[in-house]
Amino acid sequence: MTTAELITARTFRYERWRAGAHGMLETAAQTFLLLIAVQYYAAGPTAKALLASGGSFGMLLSLLVVSVVANSGLRPARAAAMLTALGALCMGVVAAVPTPVVFLAGSITAMALLAMTIPLLTQVYQDNYPSQSRGRLFSLTMMIRIGTAAAFAEAAGRVLAADMQWSRWLMLVYCGAFAFSAVCLARLDSKPLARSGRTNPLRALRYVREDRVFRLTLIVWMLMGFANLMMWPMRVEFLANPRYGPPLAATSIALLTGVIPNIARLLLSPLWGRLFDRMDFLSLRAALNLGFALGILAFFTSREMPGLLAGAVIFGISNAGGDVAWTLWVTKFAPPERVAEYMAVHTFFTGLRGVVAPLVAFNLVAYVSIGALGWVCAAMIVAASLILVAEVRGRKAADPGTKLIEEGTRT
After folding, report:
1. What are phi and psi of 26, to 5 degrees?
2. Ramachandran assignment for 408, one of left (phi > 0), alpha (psi -120 to 50 degrees), beta (any other)
3. Per-residue pLDDT reduced to its tens digit, 68-121
4. Which of 28, 91, 94, 313 is 20 to 30 A from 387, alpha carbon to alpha carbon?
């Protein structure tokens, strides 16, 4: 095997090991931290919104993280390991001091630290995975991550349904998952990020001005992402809060927000990975957008179980593609040495909407029905899709034989 093939194999091996731990941590962000806040600590709307925005706070700091890592010469995989180790420390403190303030502060910080690793790892995937199979390799590790998340959500849901006091031990499990992830990340091969010679962490925002396709995609993602992030944490609120009907048991909430969506993600992840490697990205993004819109409408326009189940399945199918597209899309056209910077810009804007969207959602539902909010968010996603469709048609009309985004080519 060549050196490049050895690096790819080594990365794939440790990423498969890490995927199980990351799958467990996904259930924290998706379901259990918010569920514990609602049913154990009786948290208010602002506290719940802040908790739902934990990962988004980390994304807001992505530009700073990438700038510091690049200028320090630290390898991105090692930096990601250090951030993840700090996440383990935060969860350990939450488990040791079970009070509302410590739970909120520790959980938000841990999720933020986990999100800070995203642009660093995207650069690792760019460097260590060949372009023709990057989506496929990533989706295979995602299958392990998703399968673990589904199984863990089912088990943890049953434990918490029996007694919410077990939430303290759940925090210890999350602490262990963070620690194991840190060990795996420390063993990944990675090259130092390209230095720009500048210390301004906002310098990467210039790519928004210079790169038209990047700018257009970010605008579309802002519309779609804001709508999706408004409704994402509302799933647990919708099922757990007596305001919307008899609250479901923790097992049922875990089933509808964790188990079923993750089973759908597991089954469809390989397909979306292959589509990412072969399909024009904007067309792929438009298809995913429509799936999210349908999922929102199915889930939130009725409290009947068929609608909830359909929404959970559609969310899972769309998320299977979203996992690959969100993490790897900048590798389609960013200069290879600048992938981390492009991804930092993307995660920065994701974090911006991720902080604001839950605050808007949790406060809006005091004045409008959650079903009406769902219709508004679905309309925003459809609008984003129409922008993409217009761009795709315009490019095909201009040059029918040219792909929408060619790898390594910028517009």
Report:
1. -60, -40
2. left
3. 998 888 999 999 999 999 999 999 999 999 888 999 999 999 999 999 999 999
4. 313
Q: Which tokens sit at 121?
A: 């790892």
CB atoms within 10 A of CB 402: 12
- 358, 49 Cβ separation under 8 angstroms: yes
Say which residue the tokens 């995989």 belong to: 77
Lowest mean pLDDT segment, chosen from 49-53, 92-96, 172-176, 221-225: 49-53
125-159 burial: b if 16+ Cβ within 10 Å, else e: bbbbbeeeebbbbbbbbbbbbbbbbbbbbbebbeb
Confidence tier at 178 by pLDDT (50, 70, 90): very high
Yes or no: say if 276 and 74 are a contact pair by the CB < 8 Å rule: no
State how far the Cα of 87 lies from the Cα of 225, in Å rounded to an integer. 25
**Do 225 and 353 form a contact (C-beta atoms < 8 A)?**
yes
Q: How far apart are CA 218 and CA 208, in angstroms?
A: 8
Flag whether pLDDT at 45 surpasses 90: no
Measured from the Cβ of residue 222, the count of other Cβ atoms closer than 10 Å reads 16
**Are 251 and 158 contacting, i.e. CB atoms less than 8 angstroms apart?**
yes
Gyration radius (Cα) of the chain, Å: 20
Q: What is the pLDDT of residues 116-165, one digit of tens each?
A: 999 999 999 999 999 888 888 988 998 899 889 888 988 888 888 888 88
Rounded to an integer, what distance in angstroms lies between the CA atom of residue 254 and that of residue 39? Answer: 13
Please calculate the CA angle 334-335-339 and round it to the nearest 5 degrees. Answer: 60
Mapped onto helix, strand or coil, the DSSP state of residue 254 is helix
Alpha helices in 232-280 (DSSP H): 234-240, 250-254, 260-278
| Whole-number average pLDDT of the chain | 86
Return d(Cα 407, Cα 246) in angstroms, integer: 51
pLDDT band at 406; cut points 50, 70, 90: very low
Superfamily of domain 3-193+202-398: MFS general substrate transporter like domains (1.20.1250.20)
Residue 208 burial (C-beta neighbours within 10 Å; 0-12, 13-18, 19+): middle
Q: Taking the domains of the chain in order of start, what are their residue ranges? A: 3-193+202-398
